[in-house]
TrEMBL record:
This is Aldehyde dehydrogenase domain-containing protein. Pfam families: Aldedh. Keywords: Oxidoreductase. The keyword Oxidoreductase applies.
């Protein structure tokens, strides 16, 4: 693993602050043109050197062991640079261990297939097969809201496939990624296989996107920036995991206690800064009153405040500008007729867990991603109403459904225009081994090690003949 040279001017350092106290907790060298070019050259040289699958798997497995050894330091770094609660960072850490373990396993499973040729006259004496070869250099651009697990989901499959990787972590939360890179280095990662560059997306990210030596780009972030990624990469392949206004539907026959408990977690974990976080909650009128009472009690019980406090469940938002934007969306909804059941206030970056009622689909809060601890209840009478409202969104990442009817579950699985439909779970339900990705303005491509590793390789046909 290599990071950019420390010779860059200290004045251009990436300064990282504790998101609760504002204290400076780290400085990293900001990449300039010289460092970017050095990283690209090192990656280009590394990708041309043989790296057997067994060695790739061994490095990743050793990294898992080292990550678990450094658990305390990684958790503390992640908590401070994100502002997430202790429970949130512990959950992300546990998921990252699973993700890296799966990547190590996939390095040994990656293979091709035999291709039958007998259907074509004259090919009876020929044999064809496919092999998977690395794309070369993978560029991974990662978001602030999952500085460990999303990084693992991007660089893990890329390394498992035999690529060289250039990682550009979020400027607001790069310290966790730096620790992971150090762990991979100590695990025996060959020289040049991982370069980490720190800086802004508009400078470092854009320069890397335009470089033809990048063979594949994997990006998680906003839809607006995703469009820039696609534009700048031209014909080169990309995987985009973008924004969403995720819906969860509570049907008349739902288990209301279970649904309320799940939504109180999934709508407010990481202070709602999750692309699949429950934002629009469609509730059938026949159970609306009972469900709203149950959910209101659950949300009101959530403790917000200092993430260092073990009792805190909802910490601050990532920045004051993010908080101001969320406040504006809530205030606009209230002017349009929505009602606050719980929360609704914001002090600095601390946005109180908020539950809105009497929300209707025309409101902007049902159309734009809020990325804050806010859940909006939308009532429906006919299932078609909920489906049509959910599908009217320009996004399509995941949706949740609560029902005891198999017929209803199957109908919603077929009709909801999203990348994943979770039955009796919220939109934010995710196992790290499953294929994960969206459609429409939520992007395309799949995460999940077994699926991402295929996207980060080229399927090459080999035909043999006498």
């Amino acid at each position: 693993m290599s990071t950019m040279s420390q010779s860059s001017a200290a004045a251009r350092a990436v300064i990282v602050r504790d998101k609760w106290s504002g204290e400076v907790i780290g400085e990293l060298p900001r990449a300039g043109e010289r460092e970017i070019e050095q990283a690209l050259q090192a990656a280009e040289q590394a990708r041309r050197r043989p790296w057997p699958a067994r060695e790739r798997a061994a490095v990743l497995q050793r990294a898992v062991a080292l990550l678990e050894e450094r658990r305390t330091a990684v958790l503390e770094t992640m908590r401070r640079e994100t502002g997430f609660s202790r429970k949130d960072v512990e959950q992300e850490f546990a998921r990252a261990v699973v993700t890296l373990t799966l990547c190590a396993q996939e390095a040994l499973r990656l293979g091709g297939e035999v291709v039958p040729l007998d259907a074509s006259p004259g090919f009876e004496q020929r044999l064809a097969l496919t092999i998977r070869v690395p794309v070369g250099i993978v560029l991974a651009i990662t978001p602030f809201n999952a500085p460990l697990n999303t990084v693992c989901h991007k660089i893990g499959p890329a390394l498992a496939a035999g690529n060289a990787v250039i990682l550009k972590p979020a400027e607001l939360t790069p310290l966790t990624a730096a620790l992971l890179a150090q762990i991979l280095d100590e695990a025996g990662l060959p020289e040049g296989r991982l370069q980490v560059l720190y800086g802004s997306g508009s400078e470092v990210g854009l320069r890397l996107l335009r470089d033809p030596r990048i063979g594949f780009t994997t990006f998680t972030g906003s839809t607006e920036v995703g469009a820039i990624v696609k534009r700048e990469t031209g014909l080169r392949p990309v995987s985009l995991e973008l924004g969403s206004v995720s819906a969860t539907i509570i049907c008349a026959d739902a288990d209301l206690e279970r649904a309320a408990r799940d939504v109180a977690h999934a709508g407010y974990r990481k202070a709602g800064q999750v692309c699949t976080s429950v934002q629009s909650l469609f509730v059938h009128t026949s159970v609306e009153r009972e469900f709203v009472e149950r959910l209101s009690a659950q949300v009101a019980a959530l403790k917000s405040g200092d993430p260092a406090d073990p009792a805190t469940e909802v910490g601050p938002l990532i920045s004051e500008s993010a908080a101001a934007r969320a406040c504006a969306l809530v205030e606009e909804a209230l002017r349009s007729g929505a009602r606050v059941l719980v929360g609704g206030t914001c002090t600095g970056t601390l946005f109180q867990p908020t539950l809105l009622h009497e929300v209707a689909p025309p409101m902007r809060i049902t159309r734009e991603e809020i990325f804050a601890p806010v859940v909006s209840i939308v009532r429906f009478e006919r299932l078609d109403e909920a489906i049509e409202a959910a599908n009217a969104s320009r996004y399509g990442l995941q949706a949740g459904v609560y029902t005891s009817s198999l017929a209803t579950a199957l109908e919603l699985a077929r009709r909801l225009e999203v990348g994943g439909v979770i039955i009796n779970g919220t939109s934010s339900t995710r196992a790290d081994g499953m294929p994960y990705g969206g459609m429409k303005d939520s992007g395309f491509g799949k995460e999940g090690p077994a699926y991402a590793i295929r996207e980060m390789t080229v399927e090459r046909l080999v035909m043999l003949g006498p």
